[in-house]
Design brief:
single chain; Arc Repressor Mutant, subunit A; Multidrug-efflux Transporter 1 Regulator Bmrr, Chain A; eight-stranded antiparallel beta sheet; about 40% helix; globular
Length: about 280
């Protein structure tokens, strides 16, 4: 049986999205991506924009700046080198673009951004940096796709998830976006990290590849309300596990952490992104 045209387009979009995420260090021209999509540049651009709500150029710029923010937060790589990796021909142009996206120039971001606020503060002072709530979470069913590799690149799997849902007419209003993180990134090599990009569904369904069904256990969870760039989130995890949990009087349950994304990087400034981090408790 011939497959629906929409599914064909979804596969093409998924293929190109994966290529963009995996080849940010390379030249990603409209012509190159159109070739991967097997569409003319004119049609490819319109289809991509219609599916994702942003142009190809905006996607590439956003992902490169997001990676640059993580490099500034977590490495000592010189800023000119980070700028070159983000494909800017000068540090000045990189600084302008980064400042527009993150509200601080790169040097200030590295020196005084959210990721450094923990270095010189006592735990009592750090306590006010995050809002923690203990909530009872009901058991939830999810449709998801598997992701392997860096947690920072899970956006590629969310693109696969949503293009597949769209091709199967499964997009619904107010879908809740969930990332489930199955491994500890401090003890598992980045290339072997396992996670899942999912959306909550009311009832279990039979899922065909690449979709799978999974579930979140119910029970008590500590919820950390995080606001800011995804690249800075590691500091929030360090605080949650290293300072809050040992003094909370609670024990972590034998179940994975998950995140709920309350807005989208496609239409939200990095500094305004909101994420709830759920830690299951005994």
């Amino acid at each position: 049986m011939e497959k629906p045209v929409s599914e064909s387009y979804a596969k093409r979009l998924t293929r190109v999205s994966a290529h963009i995420h995996d080849h940010l260090d390379e030249e990603l021209t409209i012509d190159v991506l159109a070739g991967i999509a097997c569409l003319s540049p004119y049609h490819w651009h319109r289809i991509y924009h219609g599916y994702f709500g942003e142009t190809v150029a905006v996607t590439i710029k956003r992902l490169r700046l997001q990676r640059a923010a993580a490099d500034l937060a977590h490495t000592d790589t010189p800023i000119p080198q980070i700028a070159a990796r983000a494909r800017y021909d000068s540090q000045a142009s990189f600084t302008r673009a980064f400042s527009a996206a993150f509200g601080l120039p790169p040097a200030k971001y590295r020196e005084a951004g959210g990721h450094t606020v923990f270095k010189d503060l006592a735990p009592r002072d750090v306590q006010v940096m995050y809002d923690i709530a203990i909530v009872q979470v009901p058991a939830m069913n999810l449709l998801a796709v598997d992701h392997r590799g860096s947690y920072m690149s899970i956006g590629k799997s969310f693109d696969l998830l949503f293009t597949t849902l769209a091709s199967r007419n499964l997009i619904r209003p107010s879908l809740r976006m969930i990332g489930i993180y199955l491994d500890d990134p401090t003890s598992v090599p980045e290339s072997e990290l396992r996670s899942q990009a999912g959306v909550i569904i009311p009832d279990p369904v039979v899922a065909d590849a690449p979709l799978l069904t999974t579930a979140i256990r119910g029970g008590d969870h500590a919820v950390l309300r995080y606001k800011g760039p995804y690249g800075d989130m590691r500091a929030a995890y360090d605080w949650l596990f290293g300072q809050w949990l040992p003094t909370s009087g609670r024990e972590a349950a034998d179940a994975p952490v998950f995140e709920e994304y309350l807005n989208s990087p496609r239409d939200t400034l990095p500094t305004e992104l909101r994420t709830d981090i759920y830690l299951p408790l005994e």
